[in-house]
Design brief:
By secondary structure, the protein is of the alpha/beta class. It has a single domain, classed as Rossmann fold, CATH 3.40.50. It is 34% helix and 21% strand. It has helices spanning 5-17, 110-117, 135-149, 169-178, 180-192, 206-222, 241-251, 267-275, 290-296, 320-323, 325-335, 345-355; strands at 37-49, 57-74, 98-104, 123-128, 154-159, 198-204, 229-235, 257-262, 302-306, 368-371. Strands 3-2-1-5-4-6-7-8-9-10 form a ten-stranded mixed sheet, with helices on both faces. Strand 1 (37-49) and strand 2 form a beta hairpin. Helix 3 packs across helix 11 (325-335), helix 5 (180-192) crosses helix 6 (206-222) and helix 6 runs parallel beside helix 7 (241-251).
């Protein structure tokens, strides 16, 4: 497959855009200076521990989940949507993202730690990262998103054993499958916590398959998705459209509200579609094509926000939900706050207002909102 010139060129472009940094960024440093902000998160992972300095967890699979309470320092005077990556083993909290605290959490203490982190309104945000993501990148990227959203939530990161390699797509896909029951168990534990009142699940790229499949598993095991899990947000989901429709259907009528961020210019999902035999991915659909709209119409009650017009620093157009200040604002002010959009004219106007005027000069519609038919 990769011998084809178009595919080879795309792989080369993605390799340039995903150039890996040296490992070892998670060496704890002293307390952050004045002006820096701290993000404390609960981390659950199915990765195997690593003895390498500053790595903590690698890309190998573990027999059971591990839990950590981690605190990341965010430097002052930075642009929303950006991560200031430290030099491995030599982070400077005045200018870099830095790990300033890290403690193992025993499974028996998981609910107690979660309750301590949960704010008064009881909302928890569970984030599931995507393909080609090392553990340090998952931690720093989630810390950036939580800080920039500025939403009152308890941040929970679920990090599955991605190999962190561009050509490790099949390994990552199997690792996501390997982690399905662990994520389902974590979501059940969170929903059972009396301190928790509302759970929002945010999943990116290949993590969208894992999150959706775990919710489907909960529905099949228990008759429905736990009622506290109110929203499922899929950012650039690397999901076969047919598989996604079936997953949503099998969650049953009492499922979370589903919101999807898509971009027809997503270069990472173009490669994924090629690997999948030319099958379009949900996150890369083109809503100007009638056949794409027809496919999503069969996923009732699903809201799709097309952010193709947004310009960000991401060369792959695969992480607009986190790198676009407008999209981050949308997440924090509306979606993570438990609100959603409907398919009415007012809903489209609200979505456009939430994105703001940053892309008003784009020739195409700056934002497209589409709602599948058939109700929830």
């Amino acid at each position: 497959m990769f011998a084809r010139p178009a595919t080879a060129a795309l792989v080369a472009g993605l390799a340039f855009g995903c150039a890996s940094r040296d490992e070892g960024a998670l060496v704890p440093v002293s307390a952050a200076p004045a002006g820096a902000a701290n993000v404390e998160m609960l981390v659950a992972t199915t990765r195997a521990p690593s003895a390498a300095p500053g790595v903590l967890f690698g890309g190998e699979r573990a027999d059971a989940s591990s839990f950590r309470d981690m605190v990341v320092s965010i430097p002052p005077n930075r642009e929303v949507g950006s991560v200031q990556w430290p030099t491995p083993g030599a982070a400077d909290p005045a200018r870099d993202f830095a790990l300033v605290g890290e403690t193992a959490v025993a499974p028996a203490d998981l609910s107690r730690t979660l309750a301590r982190l949960t704010p008064k309104d009881g909302r928890v945000l569970v984030y599931v990262h995507g393909f080609n993501t090392r553990f340090d990148a998952a931690v720093f990227n989630f810390a950036q998103l939580v800080h920039d959203m500025n939403a009152p939530v308890a941040p929970v990161l679920f990090s599955w054993p991605s190999g962190g390699r561009l050509l490790g797509y099949v390994y990552d896909r199997e690792s996501a499958n390997f982690s399905r029951s662990d994520l389902a168990s974590l979501l059940r534990t969170i929903a059972d916590n009396p301190r928790v009142k509302d759970v929002v699940v945010l999943a990116h790229s290949m993590g969208a398959w894992l999150a959706t499949e775990s919710l489907r598993q909960l529905a099949l095991e228990n008759g429905r998705v736990p009622a506290k899990i109110s929203n499922l947000i899929l950012a650039s989901p690397d999901l076969d459209v047919d598989v996604f429709r079936k997953q949503v259907r099998e969650m049953g009528p009492k499922r979370p509200r589903v919101t999807i961020f898509v971009s027809r210019h997503d270069r990472a999902l173009r490669l994924s579609a090629l690997i999948a035999g030319g099958i379009d991915r949900v996150g890369g659909v083109d809503l100007s094509r009638p056949e794409s709209v027809a496919a999503l119409e069969q996923a009732p009650g699903v809201v799709v926000l097309d952010l193709s017009g947004l310009q960000t620093s991401d060369p792959l157009n695969h992480s607009k939900f986190a790198t676009s200040p407008e999209a981050v604002r949308l997440l924090g002010d509306r979606l993570i706050a438990g609100q959603g959009f409907d398919g009415s004219e007012a809903g489209v106007a609200n979505a456009a207002d939430a994105i703001g005027g940053a892309i008003g000069g784009v020739a195409a519609a700056p934002i497209v909102l589409f709602t599948g038919q058939g109700g929830r």
